[in-house]
Amino acid sequence: MPSRWVIFYFLNFFKIKSCIYFVADRVGDFFLKIIQDYDWHHFSLLVDESEPANVLVKAAFEKIIKSRLDSIGYRIWIDIQEFSKTKMTVDGTDSINYEKLLLTAKRSSRVFVFLCNGEISRNLLIKSYDLGMSTGE
After folding, report:
1. How far apart are the first and last CA of the chain?
2. DSSP string spanning 36-68?
3. Which residues of 8-27 are buried (b: 16+ CB within 10 A; e: fewer)?
């Protein structure tokens, strides 16, 4: 492959990476808008770090919180809990302690944001129901 083609390949690669980050940045703006519209000041962010997209959205959201909130005078307290679904245990269940995640998040807020796949979201919602966290409180 001639060297000029390598340069074009890398230009296309970096354009795609910056486009992905721009979309993640817009997702952070979306979260911030919802938080302000509902006047939430405390919330918990539960992030599955085994998915790279979740890490990007978390980073974009943290950047937005730091850069924009001071300028508009809106205060938010975030409890960020990071976990990773790395492997299954010996008995075939997953390695995430859903109860611990939810009870820790409950101590700091009543609004939870899940950055995870559908299976983990489902398990979190089932466990929150078992813990009596679905009463609308």
Report:
1. 62
2. HHTT--EEEEEEETTSHHHHHHHHHHHHHHHHH
3. eeeeeeeeeeeeeeeebbeb
One-letter amino acid of 33:
K
pLDDT tens by residue, the chain, 137 residues: 444 444 444 444 444 444 455 566 677 777 778 888 888 888 899 999 888 888 888 887 887 777 766 666 777 888 889 988 765 555 556 678 889 999 999 998 888 889 888 889 999 999 999 998 877 65
Which residues on adjacent β-strands are paired with residue 77?
A: 42
The pTM is what? 0.71
Name the nearest CA neighbour of 23 among 56, 65, 67.
56
Closest to 61 in 3D by CA, of 115, 17, 97: 115
DSSP state of 116: S
Locate all alpha helices (DSSP H) within the chain, ordered by sequence. 3-37, 52-72, 98-108, 118-130
Instruction: Look up residue 92 and give its two tokens.
Output: 């075939």
